[in-house]
Recover the amino acids of this structure.
């Protein structure tokens, strides 16, 4: 008989963060913005684990369409453009977010406008070429940790190096 398994690809909390960090800041819950809610990104490891166990294609083959869209762009749909527009003020609040997600760092893309993400394409290409370790043990990792440090986050190189998704047996 065939069994069902579940992959938990959730990002884990940084080792250096604790409930005390939130208490010291007078917080009784995790805020929705800023660096405090940021966990180790688990997606890349989950992709690799899933492909290793169940895949027929390589990570490079699976990422190729995403790289293509990030590099050459895609037309923004009406629904996505409206949602993006509503997020403009929040995206403008941080220079990196504005530079990454807003046209000329000022406005959301309009319906039908072609939106490109060359930095995302470059990162995905590095992952396609170097596998999960390109993300968890290399220049990408160092850049993420440096940004975390710059803005008061808690991520460390060790958090990335030790991150792994887990396979579980579903309850039903």
């Amino acid at each position: 008989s065939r069994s069902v398994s579940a992959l938990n690809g959730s990002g884990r909390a940084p080792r250096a963060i604790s409930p005390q960090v939130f208490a010291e800041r007078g917080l009784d819950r995790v805020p929705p913005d800023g660096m405090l809610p940021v966990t180790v990104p688990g997606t890349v490891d989950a992709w690799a684990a899933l492909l290793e166990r169940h895949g027929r294609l390589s990570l490079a083959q699976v990422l190729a369409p995403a790289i293509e869209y990030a590099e050459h762009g895609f037309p923004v749909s009406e629904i996505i453009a409206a949602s993006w527009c509503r997020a403009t003020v929040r995206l403008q609040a941080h220079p990196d977010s504005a530079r990454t997600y807003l046209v000329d760092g000022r406005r959301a893309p309009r319906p039908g406008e072609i939106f490109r993400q060359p930095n995302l394409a470059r990162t995905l290409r590095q992952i396609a070429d170097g596998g999960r370790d390109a993300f968890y043990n290399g220049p990408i990792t160092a850049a993420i940790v440096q940004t975390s440090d710059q803005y008061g986050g808690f991520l460390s190189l060790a958090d990335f190096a030790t991150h792994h998704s887990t396979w579980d047996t579903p309850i039903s």
